[in-house]
Specification:
By secondary structure, the protein is an alpha+beta fold. About 55% of the residues lie in helices and about 25% in strands. It has 5 helices and 6 strands, in the order H-H-E-H-E-H-E-H-E-E-E. Strand 4 (about 130-140) and strand 5 (about 140-150) form a beta hairpin. Helix 1 runs antiparallel to helix 2 and helix 2 packs antiparallel against helix 3.
Length: about 170
């Protein structure tokens, strides 16, 4: 049983490491392109974006014992990524988050939302921005996260749902 648990832990860490190395360069390149567009017209906004991007990248590269975080922190990371595209006025992005305190305090794997963030950012930058709605709820022994987004100006709608075992926040 212990060997099985160790193997599962090793597999999960390997998958997380692979996710970090695969997604981060693509995400960083998209962000840097956007900052490059903003820097010409609004250098001050671009400076703020660079600071925000560095915080996002530091967080996504963080490793160690703290591989589970509060869902509220993961949602804050999501909104920080959207903030990069709000800055400079090139994209209009409205976000709405709906969740109870019990769900916001639950523990989730770090970077759980990163693939969804990637999809949302890619889609929103294909237009002029759009809206994002995130609903988080507890369903029995699971945490359910519904993320829906509409791309402006054509209104193309996308949605994804994540379900993970519900786990109380670490003390």
């Amino acid at each position: 049983e212990r060997q099985r648990l160790r193997a599962q832990t090793l597999l999960a860490r390997t998958e997380l490491d692979e996710l970090r190395t695969r997604l981060q360069p693509q995400f960083a390149v998209r962000m840097l392109r956007h900052i490059g567009n903003v820097i010409r017209s609004e250098p001050g906004a671009a400076d703020e974006q660079i600071v925000t991007l560095s915080a996002i990248l530091r967080r996504s590269m963080a490793r160690g014992v703290d591989e589970r975080i509060r869902l509220a922190d993961e949602l804050e990371h999501f909104d920080r990524c959207l903030d990069l595209f709000r800055a400079g006025g090139h994209y209009s992005v409205e976000a709405r988050y709906v969740a109870g305190d019990d769900v916001l305090d639950c523990s989730v794997p770090m970077l759980l939302l990163q693939p969804t963030i990637e999809a949302v950012v890619l889609d929103l930058t294909s237009g002029t921005g759009g809206t994002v709605e995130v609903h988080c709820m507890r369903e029995d022994d699971q945490t359910r996260i519904d993320v829906g987004w509409n791309v402006a100006p054509d209104g193309a709608a996308m949605k994804t749902t994540l379900r993970i075992p519900f786990q109380e926040a670490l003390a």
